[in-house]
Design a protein that fits this description.
The protein has no helices and eight strands. It is mainly beta and 129 residues long. It has one domain. The chain is globular and about 40 Å long. It starts with a strand and ends with a strand.
Length: 129
């Protein structure tokens, strides 16, 4: 079963910037899993904790007040904008993460070799047919 992580409505608990590595910790992300293309077809929806790691990272602007909920955002990889990020996710190229939070603050993080790691136990919310 393939899955996709939705940035919209995900909750960022904190962002660490240490030695050129940015780690975005999500206390809640929504994931849609299906046998079809990510975000399409029958399957299930669940929430889970996750972290997105970007190496050689640079933050544009100041960090927003956290925790905070994402109202819009995407991860751009090779000119392709992903609002639904395919899972598993690990790339060897440069990326840009754009996030707008519900309080109106925005951030942009540029980095290299990003990956997403799911943490904790999934909480199943719904089934799709």
């Amino acid at each position: 079963m393939s899955g996709s992580l939705s940035l919209q409505d995900s909750r960022v608990s904190h962002i660490d910037l240490v030695d050129g590595r940015a780690t975005v910790y999500f206390s809640v992300v929504y994931i849609h899993g299906s046998k079809a293309a990510p975000g399409k077809g029958a399957g299930a929806g669940w929430t889970q904790e996750a972290e997105l790691v970007l190496n050689e990272a640079m933050l544009s602007g100041a960090l927003p007040p956290l925790p905070n909920t994402i109202s819009a955002g995407f991860l751009e990889v090779g000119g392709v904008k992903h609002e639904l990020i395919p899972l598993p996710f690990r790339r060897k190229v440069g990326v840009t993460l754009y996030l707008t939070f519900t309080d109106g603050t925005e951030i942009e993080i540029l980095g290299q070799r990003p990956f997403i790691e799911l943490l904790g136990q999934p909480i199943r919310l719904e089934d799709f047919s």
